[in-house]
Amino acid sequence: MKIATYNINGINGRLAVLLRWLSEAQPDIVCLQELKAENSRFPEKELKAAGYNAIWTGQKSWNGVAVLSTAEIQELRNDLPGEDKEFTHSRYIEAFTHSLVVGCLYLPNGNPYPGPKFDYKLRWFQRLADHAKGLIDRDLPVLLIGDYNVMPTELDTYKPEKYLDNALFRVESRETYKALVDQGWTDAIRKLYPEERIYTFWDYLRDAYGRNAGLRLDHFLLNKRVASRLITGGVYKEVRGWTGASDHAPVWIELDDSSPPGKRNKNEMGKKNNPAAHAAGPEVSEPKGLEDMLESLPEIPLPVNIKPMKATLVDEPFDESGWIYEIKWDGYRAVATISNGEVNLISRNNLVFEQFAPINELLAKSGLNAILDGEIVALNEQGTADFGALQNWRNTKSAHLVYYVFDILWYKGKDLTGLPLKARREILDAVLPKDNEMLRPSQAFEVGGTEFFEAAKRMNLEGIIAKRADSLYTSDARSREWLKIKAKRRQEVVIAGFTRNEGTVKYFSALAIGVYDQKGVLRYIGKVGTGFNDKKQKELMAQFEPLITAESPFDVKPDVDEPSQFRPRRLGAKATWLKPKLVCEVEFAEMTSDGKVRQASFKGMRSDKNPKDVVMEVAADTEQLVEEAKIKSEAIVIKSSPNVKGKKTAAPTPGKLLTEPLLTLANDTEEKKVGGHLLKFTHLNKLYWPEDGVSKRDMFNYYHQVAPYMLPYLKDRPMSLNRFPGGIYGESFYQKNVKDKAPAWAKTMPHANEKGEDKDYLLGNDEATLLWMASLGCIEMNPWFSRAQSPDNPDYCVIDLDPDKQHFDQVIQAAQEVKKVLDAIDVPAYPKTSGSTGMHIYIPLGAKYTYDQSQLFANIIVKLVQKQIPDFTTLERMIANRGGKMYLDFMQNRPGATIAGVYSLRPKPGATVSMPVTWDEVRPGLTMRHFTIHNAIDRLKETGDLFEGVLGEGIDLFKTLEKVRTLGV
């Protein structure tokens, strides 16, 4: 990577010289000083045509500075910290580009000495030194480049004695420069040429250039991270001799650049200005070896309705190898499907974006056949994404529409989602059309996350995204290998009403906002009263009017005029309620202890978000998630061995686990005979638990291995099929009737439902049936409580502990209370984790009683339990009336009701299992994560079947009820 600095001394007057030098030298980054141009007169267009992005600051005279880069560039600072009221014409600008922090500076000349200008020079130098202390030890590579107007040693001037009283060579200047370097900076040119006279400036007078009467005023200071990459450097001395050139010559260094994210191919430089380069139509270049890489990938038709992979919110930035970082853009997430010139831009909620026609047109002409993932943003004049401007970009003249692309999922018929992110990024970088302002790659930075986050805050960005470089793409998953860290507190909210204060002339005073909880209940989280002008309020009222309703949509009608410590008096606010159909985004200072937003500001409407999907984002613990991702990456275990040709699969033996997996090939489809029946297993490589790397193949192998223990609890029982054909984050649905759908060999039970309709229920009789259900996407198994031989008489009674906001230790406490009650009446009970959030406690009945009798008994038990722990439990069936308490559910004991069966997998992150536990294990510290697909088989080898008693003779219910009466019930 080549980096240069050039005191241009009047950029517009010397633009031809600058462009000639850029064309010949082709540096990647350039720092410019002494622009002598107002901001509005900076030649951005001409530099852009030459292949350079730019940030700058300047004035009509004095010393403006700029940074140019062939890659995307972000401004970090536009001045040094602190201020000087006497003089303001020195310049400092700090940028982030090519994974480097670049500080471009012009230090005051300071002449005449002595005098106020020299004093100011030293003050400014001290401000630079103070700022440099915070940069020297950062994880990011940092360079401080520019015209320091200091000659550090006698080697830096052709005649030291001449400059003894010159501000450029005064001892105070040199000592200040030395103190700066002594912080740990490397003077790059002096490092490369320790004993040579190197000059970067030659005066116009007395043929100084011809006599080589020069000075070294332009310096590169490198921190440790970048100094280790220094290869070579020098001065483009000949440029000083060009007609009309500056009195300075460009100075350059070369860095070792083994893996520069976003680096531009120098062969592409100037291509934009070469009409012949595009004469044959759109050119889509491909990297060497791409064809071989694609050859081994599965070929699939153009996917439809792809939902984007989601990032998990975490609470703080981190520094960890194996991660790359991107800017979190403040816009609309959009998946672009491009095929044969037809383009669809799809939102994260599968809505079609029709308002961004220029992007569609650009992609249609691109020549791509691909699916891209990215973010549509509107950039303001400062180059920052402006979400408000995006919503009305056609009428916002200063807004520049951009589609930032950060991933590619499908290319020329090949599925790329199974490739690591780094490989997908390489393909994206190669095939994405270059040099287009509206279509840009979102640069990936291989840097320290903490430093990158701090840079994002300084740039006033929304935040950053951290992605494991080896992560696969899992559609619609909330991944733990993609993490987002917000620099601002932003939240999508549902608009459920608006208020008007007494005496106001506005359309409304504030919006009443809420989010849905895990039970699907809309909770009020406060009001937002700023962020919209009269025009925006008028636009919003047009959307509100069709949605006005008399009823509050919140679970509890809020007091919208409630005073607070920040507003102690009431304002006479009256609420108008709206059907919860609209979503907006707000920024806020904090959440109060009672769950309300404080200092909330409206940022814009979110037409791409389904209101039912709006929940409060709670940041997860960064350290824990990063460690989990690291363990997952380092502990990739091949769980199956190559199939031995001709080897038969062993038949299940009751009570004995099958230790060998059923499916051992890497193929996406396999056929196997199970119990004499040929089964076809498809989409084996699909990740059903994407965050945990657990595939559909893993699910089949688990059910094959656990079948001997599980089948006794499925045999002869009607099954309710809960199907997840797309994995745990895909759409799911229940199927009870298998009439004309089940294989001919499968056993079924004819049954007329309450409407008199004839149904065939599948019976879970054998392993073939179990695996056939799994092939339909039945992640969990849901058997009836009764068998086909006695459908009205359950084999057991179940008490389901269903928490709301409780910690699992409180579930444990409730289970222990159930145990105390049952022990008092000598009733055996068998606990198991639900695999989701609660616990199930089974009481054997031996099919001797009806469902009504079973439910009555369960009701008596939970009433006794609820009396003991009323603070956090309830018997209220309606979710809205539970008040956030744990539901002691006895109503599951009814015909046709099902819960996840014993040893069943659950469609939850972690691939958890509903696992029997001993009562000794039911104590604080037990969690769902203790039992997963990864360890369940090993646990069963040690414990055996802890649930055997559930299918035993059963209790004498009538004698038990007599004992209950002795307790005073």
UniProtKB/TrEMBL annotation:
EC numbers on record: 6.5.1.1
Coiled coil: none
Site label Transition state stabilizer, positions: 149
Important for catalytic activity (site feature) positions: 218
Catalytic activity line of the entry: ATP + (deoxyribonucleotide)n-3'-hydroxyl + 5'-phospho-(deoxyribonucleotide)m = (deoxyribonucleotide)n+m + AMP + diphosphate
Pfam families in the record: DNA_ligase_A_C, DNA_ligase_A_M, Exo_endo_phos, LigD_Prim-Pol
GO BP: any one term: DNA recombination
Enzyme class: ligase
Keywords in alphabetical order: ATP-binding, DNA damage, DNA recombination, DNA repair, DNA-binding, DNA-directed DNA polymerase, Exonuclease, Hydrolase, Ligase, Magnesium, Manganese, Metal-binding, Multifunctional enzyme, Nuclease, Nucleotide-binding, Nucleotidyltransferase, Transferase
Cofactor(s) required for function per UniProt: Mn(2+); Mg(2+)
Site (Interaction with DNA substrate): 248
Residue ranges constituting the ATP-dependent DNA ligase family profile domain according to the UniProt record: 394-520
Domain of life: Bacteria
Residues holding Mg(2+): 7, 34, 147, 149, 247-248
Molecular function terms, GO-annotated: ATP binding; DNA binding; DNA ligase (ATP) activity; DNA-directed DNA polymerase activity; double-stranded DNA 3'-5' DNA exonuclease activity; endonuclease activity; metal ion binding
Residues annotated as catalytic: 106, 147 (proton donor/acceptor), 248 (proton acceptor)
Cofactor annotation comment: Probably binds two magnesium or manganese ions per subunit.
PANTHER family for the chain: BIFUNCTIONAL NON-HOMOLOGOUS END JOINING PROTEIN LIGD (PTHR42705:SF2)
Family: Belongs to the DNA repair enzymes AP/ExoA family.
Protein name, per record: DNA ligase (ATP)
Organism of derivation: Mucilaginibacter ginkgonis
Classification lineage: Bacteria, Pseudomonadati, Bacteroidota, Sphingobacteriia, Sphingobacteriales
